[in-house]
Structure formats: C-alpha cells, structure tokens
Design brief:
This protein is about 50% helix and about 0% strand. With about 100 residues, the chain is mostly helical.
Length: about 100
C-alpha cells in the first residue's frame, strides 16, 4: 500500500486518507453504514470513494489495515478484530472460518 500511496497526487492521497479515517469510525459505530454516507462525511464524491476502494470489502480491509499499522502475524494479540466491520465469516486469525 505504501507504494500505491507514493503514486497518488497529494490531493488524492489526502482524499484517500480522509475516506479511511471516516470509514473506520463509521463502520465501528454502524457496520452497515453505507459507502455513500461514508463518502459524504469524508467530503468526497461516491466516484472518488469507489475509485480508491471498488468494493465494500476493499474499504473495510484497508481501514482495518490503517487501524493496525503495527499488525504482526506472529502476535495474535495485535490482530485486528473483523466482527465489528461486518466480516462475521472470519475467525480470530482474519482468515475465513472453516466451518468447524
């Protein structure tokens, strides 16, 4: 993601960062928050949001990644929780549940 950020113009990077900040707060408060409401709160058009994050999953995963910049696969205690982001099909590891 850092390489992707470096390719963005400063205004596009600021929009992307603002979308992620708003999404993190909005989805934590209401996992079913609409992407259009997130775009409006971030003061960008829906097209801008979808250009950076073409799917809800892409936005959720990016906002989780931003929240847990110090994520480490060897430290389960710092793994982000996915339950409050509407990803109930994922286990504690962040990987899809096997149904067991």
């Amino acid at each position: 993601m850092a390489e992707e950020d470096e390719k963005l113009r400063a205004d596009a990077r600021a929009n992307r960062d603002r979308i992620l900040d708003v999404a993190r707060e909005a989805l934590a408060a209401d996992p079913s928050a609409s992407l259009n409401s997130i775009a409006k709160t971030a003061r960008v058009g829906a097209g801008t949001l979808y250009r950076h994050f073409p799917t809800r999953e892409a936005l959720v995963l990016a906002s989780i990644g931003r929240r847990s910049m110090r994520w480490s696969p060897s430290r389960p205690s710092c793994w982000p929780s996915t339950s409050h982001y509407g990803l109930s099909g994922f286990g504690a590891t962040g990987l899809p549940n096997s149904g067991e």
